Amino acid sequence: MVEHYDKVLAGIAGSLLGGVLLSYVTAVSLTGGLFVGTLVATLFVYDAMFRNPPIPPSDPRVVATAIVWHAVLFGMVVVAYFG
Predict the structure, then answer these.
(1) What is the 3-state secondary structure (H, E, C) of the chain?
(2) Residue of 17, 57, 23 lying closest to 65 (CA atoms)
(3) What is the rounded CA–CA span in Å between residue 30 and residue 19?
(4) How many folded domains does the chain comprise?
(5) Residue-number span of the structural domain to which 76 is assigned
(6) pLDDT tens-digit profile of 18-48?
(7) Does the keyword Transmembrane helix apply (predicted)?
(8) In this model, does residue 12 exceed pLDDT 80?
(9) What does pLDDT average to over the chain?
(10) Distance of CA 66 to the CA centre of its chain
């Protein structure tokens, strides 16, 4: 049976794939498409980490994961605009 977190993982992968497809179908660059996909995937990560977390939000692992995810997102912004 498919659980909530399986759907979240599928949503993240689908968002990133959608960003890649966006870049191939339109005039958006690959990094721009991935950036858009990453922004959409962030909504799924937010849902999994803060709205329906598998562990208490006060756990240090939640904070570390949030920091790493936003560092990746920031890296995508830097690559999209300066790369």
Answers:
(1) CCCHHHHHHHHHHHHHHHHHHHHHHCCCCHHHHHHHHHHHHHHHHHHHHHHCCCCCCCCHHHHHHHHHHHHHHHHHHHHHHHC
(2) 57
(3) 8
(4) 1
(5) 4-82
(6) 999 999 999 999 989 998 999 999 999 888 8
(7) yes
(8) yes
(9) 88
(10) 11
